[in-house]
Specification:
By secondary structure, this protein is of the alpha/beta class. It has helices at 5-21, 25-31, 49-52, 75-87, 102-109, 116-129, 131-135, 140-160, 163-170, 202-214; strands at residues 37-42, 60-65, 92-99, 176-183, 189-196. Helices cover 51% and strands 17% of the residues. The chain binds cobalt (II) ion.
Amino acid sequence: MSSLDYLLEKNRHWADSIVADDAEFFSRLAKQQAPDYLWIGCSDSRVPANQVVDLAPGEVFVHRNVGNLVVHSDLNCLSVLHYAVSALRVKHVLVVGHYGCGGVRAAMEGLRLGLVDNWLRHLQDVKDRYRDCLSAIDDVNERANRLCELNVIEQVAHVCSTTTVRDAWARGQQLVVHGWAYSLENGLVTDLGISISRERDIESAHLAALEKRLR
Ligand code: CO
């Protein structure tokens, strides 16, 4: 007997309930996926991509890592992005940070946690870049929330400057890259006011979004 029998039982209930509603659901989905969205979010268990935006299996392609980072040399993230944009032809890329992010907090406070410190170094780079703005915020939670937002804005710019996204725009493909922040406290998403749909808007949209957060 597997100690995870209860999960397998939950799985059977879940699959049965979907088939009860729509007998062809799984057989249809098994043939192909055609999601409109790529979600790049944090690994945090409290921020499940499909559930947050109430989308069914097949509707959102997902990449998650600690701190929702898009690092220019991360072949994992870049491969997901490339497949989503070039093969699946998603229409939207959502970079989704979340308030109360442990990765953001650790980076902000320079905590030593182990191996992950090297990954969080990318978040510390964002912290260093906006040090003046962040150090002017007295409340530590508010400061972490601001770093969460600034990080999303930076990662949106990173997505937009990849060869994958620039090539897609160059061939006339419709693709919008958005920055969101999710609240663990109330389950609501805040649109950070950065949605970029062409290469020549990257810099101005990036600056405009930063302006709103750096006041
Ligand atoms: Co997080």
